[in-house]
Amino acid sequence: MSALRVWPGRPYPLGAHWDGRGVNFALFSLHAERVELCLFDAAGRRETDRVRLAEYTDEVWHAYLPDLRPGQLYGYRVYGPYAPERGHRFNHHKLLLDPYARLLHGDVRWHDALYGYRVGDPREDLSFDSRDSARYMPKCVVVGDPVDGRQWRRPNTPWRRSVLYELHVGGYTRRHPQVRDDLRGSFRALAEPVVVDHLRGLGVSAVELLPVHAHLDERRLVDDGRVNYWGYNTLAYFAPDNRFLTRPDLGEFRLLARELHAAGIELLLDVVFNHTAEGDRLGPTLSFRGIDNATYYHLDPANPRYGLDFTGCGNSLNLARPRVLQLVLDALRYWVQQMGVDGFRFDLATTLARRAAVHGTGLEADFDPEAGFFAAVRQDPQLAGCKLIAEPWDLGPRGYRLGGFPAGWGEWNDRFRDTARGFWRGDAGHAPALASRMTGSSDLFPNHGRRPAASVNYVTAHDGFTLRDLVTYSRKHNAANGERNRDGSDHNLSWNCGVEGVTDDPAIERLRRRQMRNLLATLVLSQGTPMLLAGDEFGHSQAGNNNAYCQDNPIAWLDWERLQQPDGGDLHRFLQRVLRLRAAHGVFRRDRFFKGEALDGAQKDILWLTPDGGERDGHDWQLHPHWLAFVISGAAGAEHPGGHGGSRLDSSFLVILHAGAASVRFVAPPAAGGAAWRRALDTQEETGRGDGWQLEAGTVLEVPARCLLVFECPVQPAASTAA
Question: Which long-range contacts link 81-86 to residues 24+ away (Cβ below 8 Å)?
């Protein structure tokens, strides 16, 4: 080994940082007794040097090496007690990843040497495997100069104008015919003009990427010839996953951020800070467990050898610990400032706000709406303006917290999903609930001045059926996952429209296409923030698989040829039309909840209607279980330019949703100023076009079965339409 110069260095910032002259290394561990820095050759196969970090300041081990440069590969060995009964699982035979590593070289290769104990020995708390794991581990990479965080020209789209679009980086372009073969499935492919143009042309304001952090494919999947396609098994919170890179640097992700920003599209990340890739106590020792298990994870205070499991993965990060909270905040700031990210969706976010369990049982680690995590994010100037979205539940006690997150947060609203699905499936009794969901779910978000946009509405997401499969299958078909169809949800509220799976029956196919249009229009025209699933715009199917987490193959990859087919192209044009309607009219994206009260002495801000055109009362909600109709006053959609007084009047709209199996006669209500209603959207039409057909007040309209209609009463010529 060479004689490297080693200087004391600094305890901050954590990680490996090149300052133009050398590299400072800093690693937190409260309970370690000794830390060694291991340096490797360019191939990552041979250890060239080992340096003891002799300096220990404020719980951080650190050193400065003036002879190192960007590109250097490294890892750590951390010495300390192997005492699971006290929560400690140190094992210096295990090469460990730096939690702050910003790039990884190589991948985990599964082997018994990765575990912190002797596999198969029932005394896992008494002995551990002494074999070296270095050959089976990826190596951390020292990266070069940071970028200037001020370079990002962010769209800063207001919540009320946001339309989210969830996609998987790999599967989105893997089969794209206009993307080069060598780029497909990468960040670079997403930045291609043809891809960005599709997103911009569709009308979405933000893409939400499924996890892009370096992650681990679980051993059981690898042994079975599968992978963790979705990536909800994070290995390193600062490093992008190598499978999305065409070359080993960070420039491709930054290019994606710049190209999306130039197109007016924000970039959001789905992040998994609730657990790590190390699994339960019998999982591998890769990083956090070997650095300071007792600090990083929620442990059972009655028996610290076990981790508290709020996620179904056997380990839960303990953000109630200051250093763990620091890790998460540092990671968020890094992706915002250095990588151009505009916001985050937090997987199983309830876990992030659970208190530390100090005695008794894990039930005491309850959700805390005033948790330090929320306070830290709220006051951080570098995160100000970021979109923060919670998946407002986890699998622990009292884990379902929809509506319980702080001001400024958006929340995935699964009650919108279930209500919209049940209504259009034809289930009785969903109309009253759908009325609440379409008006922003004020019953769920009543406190702290929260607005309708806090409700992130969706009908489909990565977890579950695609839109096409939702109207094609009444049960899941997950045999390809190798779990005997036992995985995935059985509560899908789907309907196959008469035949399970693919059919040549033209009547069933027409109904399926109309049902997809009904669901999309309901989503887009509801108050709140709509989220679309990539591929739904042209009818992507996963052949009935509602849990494609392990399918890195054509089952999950988008088939772009569908966009060129008549039905896929028509559905795409329909969604464009509905998104343009939402964008053009403030009544569909209000900044306040409806009150059901008259505005300026005129009509109510929203008026609920019976089929005879009268106002719907409590009794009427029970009489018409498949019917929902309402008028939104143009005054209810008024926006305040710049927020400085005055307002611009919008059109008034009549919206009719009929999920029944037979047509209904409807008496048209009067429009503002005695004008006629003009048809703006009709889901009976393949592309939804309304063609301006007029409907006079008092006219009896035969509303067909299972359709959604929108009529507009334009503003008077003297007024201007809301932007």
Answer: 81/31, 81/33, 82/116, 82/128, 84/124, 84/125, 84/281, 84/304, 84/305, 85/125, 85/303, 85/304, 85/305, 86/294, 86/304
Give the pLDDT confidence of 287-299 residue by residue, as tens digits. 999 999 999 999 9
Return the structure tokens found at 712.
Answer: 């507009």
CA distances from 212 to 229, 233, 341, 665 (A): 11, 10, 12, 51
Active site residue 347: yes
Please provide the CATH number assigned to the domain covering 594-713. 2.60.40.1180
Report whether 118 contacts 91 (CB < 8 A): no
The 8-class DSSP code of residue 397 comes to T
Point out the catalytic residue in the list 129, 208, 347, 469.
347
CATH 2.60.40.10 domain residues, the chain: 15-141
Catalytic position from the list 391, 411, 469, 712 = 391
Compute the average pLDDT of residues 631-654. Answer: 70
Instruction: Give yes or no for a cis peptide into 13 (omega within 30° of 0).
Output: yes
Whether residue 218 lies in the annotated active site: no
DSSP character at residue 692: T
Do residues 26 and 12 make contact, with C-beta atoms less than 8 angstroms apart? yes
Q: Which CATH architecture has domain 15-141?
A: Sandwich (2.60)
**What span, in angstroms and rounded, lies between the C-alpha atoms of 179 and 194?**
8
**pLDDT single digits (tens) 397-410:** 999 999 999 999 99
Which candidate, 628, 645, 638, 635, places its Cα nearest to that of 598?
A: 635
CATH number given to 165-586: 3.20.20.80
Q: What's the pLDDT at 721?
A: 40
Query: Cα 258 to the chain's mean position, in Å?
Result: 20
* pTM, to two decimals: 0.96
Residue whose structure tokens are 């570098």: 382
Q: Is the pLDDT of residue 640 over 70?
A: no
